[in-house]
Amino acid sequence: MILYFSATGNCKHVAKCIAEEFGDTALSVLEAPKEFSLKKGEMLGIVTPTYFWELPTIVRDYLTELSPDMPGDNYTFLIATFGTTPGATGEEARHILSANGILLDAAYSIRMPDNWTVWFDLSNPEKVAAQNAKADIQIKKVTEQIRKETLGNHQMPRVPYFMQTFTDAAFTSARQTSNLHLEGSCIGCGLCAKICPVNAIEIKDGKPVWVKDHCALCFGCLHHCPKFAIQYGNGATKKHGQYVHP
Predict the structure, then answer these.
(1) 89-99 and 57-65 helices cross at what angle (nearest 10)?
(2) pLDDT tens digits, residue range 175-205?
(3) pLDDT at 234 (0 to 100)
(4) Which one in 90, 118, 173, 227 has a CA-CA gap of 20 to 30 Å to 98?
(5) Which stretches within the chain are classed as H helix?
């Protein structure tokens, strides 16, 4: 089983490529059960984006409650997609899974277009397409490592796990919904509320309203908005465009 979280399609693409290669099933953690049974020798894969050098809160919470029945000889791996570094996602996942009695055999990373457009400029379609072409090559290489059941942390360039002490505070601050705002081009279609994975948006009087202090910071609302009416911070996101994996 290949589990993934994906707001704009990168991790969904990786998970489906891996699952197709091994005749397996790819399921979003938003829909997947936390208790299930694996057959002897069946793999367990987790594909996640990297947020602020660590796991997204949605993935972290899911793994904390994950309790599969694993009879033995089950190869377990994590793949983190990233823009600058996969951070300490592999080590963080290893700690969480270990507490549940699950051994993480390997961790991998794949550089892809990063939807954190506060920093990353994705406004040039040709450059984005080139990034995704390189990512597909990396996916194939990781697939071969999985086929060989390679062991160890192969994420590069990673950071020490203790850095989470500092990154977690920054991540929590960045997740404040007060950082997000709505422009006048909004047509009140309600798509943002529908796709928000933590139900932080509601439609009131025909317009989206953030009803929670913090969200997942997945930027699904920003990148899927048909009028690009949702922005973050000081306006850099407006200049850097929208992104959804093709």
Answers:
(1) 30
(2) 999 999 999 999 999 999 999 999 999 999 9
(3) 86
(4) 173
(5) 10-22, 57-65, 89-99, 125-147, 164-174, 191-195, 220-224, 236-240
